[in-house]
Amino acid sequence: MADKQLIDVSYNEKTLSIEYQLLHPERIDRPLLVFLHEGLGSVAMWKDWPAKVCSVLQCRGLVFSRYGYGKSTPRPAQEKWLPDFMHHQAQQFMPAFFEALDIDTRRDRPILVGHSDGASIALLYAATFPDQIQALIVMAPHLFVEDATIQNIELAKSAYLSSDLPEKLARYHDNVDSAFWGWNDVWLSASFREWTIEDEVAQIRCPVLAIQGREDEYGSLAQIEGIAERAPDVQLYVIDDCRHSPHRDKPEQTTDAIAAFVRGLS
Question: Which UniProt keywords apply (predicted)?
Fold first, then answer.
């Protein structure tokens, strides 16, 4: 298993230093799982769960911290992300990142494993590049904005300003303000309330496994049900007694579901 590394990626007229980790790159004849983290995630916040999934499936893995997160280039304090930031990540950053790593996605089509914002980015990538992906695994994805989502993001803002949440997040990000406010500001902006990727999801053609906790505090089951209504090959997997992070709340059950799905791909 490779150590965490940094690579320069040209994106949006900038050169960014992106933190990443390759898991078992020697398994060149096995599928490549690419893990896309949540709105406050990073390589470190995944902990060892991606490695465990790759071990169960004997696959390769790629884990990375998006711009503004982990040990990647931080977001300047004056830079405010716009509602289409996830589109930019999927349609512009990810192709540039794959190219920097010399990954040919037309030949070596990855399986994307996304959580929350990362799941939405994975859905957008699959819709934009249908011939450059084998399958999708999305955990607690966002297709549209719900009142409960905004209410809980507002609670996160209050906690960040009044509790030890910044110190806790500092375990996972070199610049905590970059990670938190980049995510929190855009989600709480008035212009984000109309955000939706429902039309894009209708363009997805690859197999999809959509996982969600029944007690997800950031979204109702309408989020994954919306994928099944629009895309042709979707399996839904709802986990009881599970909130927004299935891989943390129910790691074994989530891993088993993913392993069964990947093994079932032709």
Answer: Hydrolase
CB 127 within 8 A of CB 199: no
d(CA 122, CA 126): 6
C-alpha to C-alpha distances, 172 to 179, 232, 241, nearest whole angstrom: 10, 37, 26
The tally of domains found in the chain comes to: 1
Query: What does the block give as tokens for 115?
Result: 């959580």
pLDDT tens track for 64-97: 999 999 999 999 999 999 999 999 999 999 999 9
pTM: 0.97
Q: Which amino acid is at 235?
A: Q
CATH code for the domain in which residue 175 is found: 3.40.50.1820
